[in-house]
Amino acid sequence: MSEHHLLLCFLFFLSFSQILLSSCFSFSNSTKICPHGQSLALLHLKKSFSIKKSHSRFCRFPSYPKTEHWKEGSDCCSWDGVSCDLVTGHVIELDLSCSWLSGTIHSNSTLFRFPHLQRLNLAFNDFSGSSVSAGFGRLSSLTHLNLSDSGFSGLISPKISHLSNLVSLDLTSNEEAEFALDGFYSLVQNLTKLQKLHLSWISISSVFPNSLLNRSSLISLDLSLCGLHGRFPDNDIHLPKLELLSLWGNFNLNGNFPRFSENNSLIDLYLSSTNFSGELPASLGNLKSLQTLYLSSCQFLGSIPASLENLTQITFLSLDGNHFSGKIPNVFYNLRNLISLDLFENNFSGQIPPSIGNLTNLLKLDFFDNQLEGAIPSSVYGFSSLSSVRLQYNLLNGTIPSWLYTLPSLVELDLSHNKFTGHIGEFQFDSLEYIDLSMNELHGSIPTSIFEFVNLSSLYLSSNNLSGVLETGKFEKLINLTDLDLSNNMLSLTTSVHSNSMLPNIQILDLSHNNISGMFSWNVGKDTLGRLNLSYNSIRGFEMQPWKSMQILDLHSNLLQGPLPTPPNSSFFFSVSHNKLSGEISPLICKASSMGVLDLSHNNLSGMLPHCLGNFSNDLSVLNLRRNQFHGIIPQTFLKGNSFRTLDFNSNQLEGLVPQSLIICKELEVLNLGNNKINDTFPHWLGALPKLQVLVLRSNHFHGQIGFSKIKSPFMSLRIIDLAHNDFEGDLPEMYLRSLKAAMNIDEGNMTRKYMGDDNYQDSMMVTIKGSEIEFVKILNTFTTIDFSSNKFQGVIPECIGNLNSLRGLNLSHNYLTGCIPLSFKNLKMLESLDLSSNKLSGRIPQELTSLTFLEVLNLSQNHLIGFIPQGSQFQTFGNDSYYGNPGLCGFPLSNRCTTDEIPYPSQEIEAKFESGFDWKITLMGYGCGLVIGLSLGCLIFLSGKPEWLVWIIDKNIDKKIVRNKRSTRGRGARIS
Fold first, then answer.
1. Least confident among 250-259, 533-542, 711-720, 906-915
2. Which runs of E-coded beta strand occur in 423-513?
3. What are phi and psi of 92, to 5 degrees?
4. Alpha helices for 86-130 (secondary structure H)
5. Which residues neighbour 599 within 8 Å (Cβ) at sequence distance 6 or greater?
6. Residue 153 class from Cβ within 10 Å (0-12 exposed, 13-18 middle, 19+ buried)?
């Protein structure tokens, strides 16, 4: 080609390029200018919102005010968050997520004037008061709609189901929003192109729609915490594109583990906190792309299938809070991507599988609360990133393996409540922040490396066999320590002269049940310590009182002497019981206006009680002053609306009357005034206290008749009542005995057995059994007993006592009671102790009492009982002392033999039938000897009344052919103090 031709071609190319570039430039300029109406609509939308950074505080991405630079006169297509069609200039995408916006989007908002809008993202703003209105349904071109975390509420308009082009819908975390009836069903039916549907925290309250499992286009489905109920479909799931399925938090959604075909792409599966149940199928192994599996807090059971080993991509595996059992399969060799393994709170047994040692990327290992046993595997091949090991509440034993001391990233170690033995080794790294080795069988001293952990916040070594002298100076570097529990060991404590171990952030310190003696001089947590427990030591006093901010101070069971220390004003719990404190209670104690439990019992305190004790704290639930030497009167004033649950003044020298202001203590459960000098009549008005369960008035100067109450059903909750050793007289209080509903029909099989009290304080009481005082450190809520002994009660024993069929103890001894032992006592099936001694009871011992199979203590001595002693069951175990002082009794175990050897005397129930004049049983006897004789005998009885001759015959046929058991017990009854 000639140079002339080349020049012509070059000139033609330049000319064409200029025309092309000019055309493109002109075309580009013309498409960047959006229509004027859309600019105005956007500016109007901007003005309807306020801007504040906190409105997007939950945004997971960098947030900033995108609308701040929207200016009138500029091209809206260039505005932040706005995208336009390159040809028409129409706004097709609006992304205002994380834009700090706040305001209400009304149904007539200019937001809905963009008919060509394809993508709308308003996530992570604050549109409180807005609803997902019909306006959104007018945006018919939308393919992507994201309104998540933006405060929408109210009913979601059914018009949203008209957005038939939607590919992605995200309404997540608008907790106040809900679908109308059938609204969710319509949405699922109409939006057939959906690939992403995220509605978590939206109230759906529907069954799971089967049609969702037919949408082959679905990639991500999140319906967590939506109130789904009913049963999840059991049919196989054929959704080849599905990567995420989240149904967690639908507590009433039932079903088995979903069955996925081999052709699946599932990456994340969340079923936690649902009611899914049954065993995991072997098809679990089909989920070969699975990275996250959360099945916690469901109802799954059985063993883990071996096909778990196929999940080679798994990173998070959470099966905790189910009913899985059997051994943990040894399938972890190939699961090298696993980061977190949670199997806690199940019923796994056997040993920890050795393949655990291959999980080189593991960060968290949690087998807490199972039944695993044996030793922890000793061979591991990495664990360089392991930060948390939780194996507490199992049956693991042996020594702690050496590799646990060499983990460079370990932050949390909890091996508590197992059976580990040996010494605690020295740790090689100082990364630990939490250590709990309590409730094991470890011994030796505390390793010195622990005192180098500058980041350590919690150290629990309680209930082991640790010993040695603990120097407070060792704690000097533990400046971040907040919780220290070394209780229930054999440690002693010394304080260095120049110790600077103040533990500046300590909040909880428990050194109880150790060998700490002498003066306590550790100046610890002066400004931060909120809970200090030094109980069960031999501490004699304090060189200083680190009680500035104390809330719980437990010093009971030591050797404290001298005056009562005044608790800090911030105190909620203060116990110095079982010490040797003396002197009076200072009125300054009443400045602790938040006091909840005040226990000064078992000391040598004296003087009069401050008047403020009853009204200085609305939170005071327990006031225990038992076994001191207080005198004077009980405080007379109690705050209205008070919280008193327990008032114990037992074993002092208090006198006067029972204060009637106690009637306002509506929460009162325990009132113990025993062993004082109170001179009063029975405080019948206490019967109006709705929760009173324990009433002890024994060993005072109460007097007079108990009489009747104007209250319709007094003492409805009372189940322990002790009036012993007073001067009460008259008949037993039948009206009150009929009202003791808490001692009737206790269904122990269906009730939770617990002790009286709460986590802060549990009630105790003294019970006298067979002459010996026994302390009930805790009082079961099923324990019921009545003690009216050593008074001047007279008359017959009311039959209604037999209605108290849950009664455990009954003591009516040392009174002037007459009449027979009531037959209704046969209904006291739970009775363990019965003392009717030293009365004037007559008649025979009912044979029916042999049905009381729980009866362990029986004392009927010193009465006027006659006849044959019943035989069988527990009566074979009672000795002579149960019956002495009744010269009319005969038969085992007494040496006084009865005169006949045939059958015992008929019960009073049979006698009563005889006295009625006729009994069909007599007629039936006639069939043995002939019909005529039987009828004649029946007529004779009818005409002549009780046949004395027949009674005489039966009375003589007793005692000779009974097999005797020599076992006997002495019985003195049961008393409470």
1. 906-915
2. 434-436, 441-444, 458-460, 465-471, 483-485, 490-494, 508-510
3. -115, -10
4. none
5. 556, 574, 575, 576, 577, 622, 624, 761
6. middle
The residue type at 715: F
CB of 341 within 8 A of CB of 359?
yes
If you average pLDDT over residues 238-247, what whole number do you get?
96
Placement of tokens 């394809």 in the chain: 118
Residue 759, pLDDT > 90, answer no
CB atoms within 10 A of CB 968: 15
Q: Where are the beta strands (DSSP E) in 303-433?
A: 316-318, 323-327, 340-342, 347-350, 364-366, 371-374, 388-390, 395-398, 412-414, 419-422
Annotate 535-604 with three-state secondary structure.
CCCEEEEECCCCCCCCCEEECCCCCCEEECCCCCCCCCEEECCCCEEEECCCHHHHHCCCCCEEECCCCE
**Residue 156: pLDDT above 80?**
yes
Per-residue pLDDT band for 500 (boundaries 50, 70, 90) equals: low
Question: What are the tokens at 22?
Answer: 């000019």
Rounded to whole angstroms, how far apart are CA atoms 881 and 84?
Answer: 105
Could you give the dihedral angle defined by the CA atoms of residues 817, 820, 823 and 829, in that order, rounded to the nearest 10 degrees? 50
User: CB-based contacts of 20: which residues, under 8 Å, 6+ apart?
Assistant: none
Question: Which run of H or E residues covers position 776?
Answer: strand 772-776
- CA dist., res. 250 & res. 298, Å (int): 11
ω before 906 within 30° of 0 (cis)? no
Note the pLDDT tens digit of each residue in 812-865: 999 999 999 999 999 999 999 999 999 999 999 999 999 999 999 999 999 999
Residue listed under structure tokens 């005409």: 943
Q: Is the pLDDT of residue 902 over 70?
A: no
Distance between CA atoms of 521 and 42, rounded to whole angstroms? 72
CB 873 within 8 A of CB 962: no
The band of 772, judged by pLDDT with boundaries at 50, 70 and 90, is: low
Q: Report the C-alpha gap between 671 and 676 in whole angstroms.
A: 13
Helix, strand, coil in percent for the chain, rounding step 5: 20, 25, 55
**Secondary structure class of 47 (helix, strand, coil):** helix
Q: Is the pLDDT of residue 67 over 90?
A: yes
Residues 878 and 871: beta-carbon distance below 8 Å: no
Q: Which residue has the tokens 């074979």?
A: 876
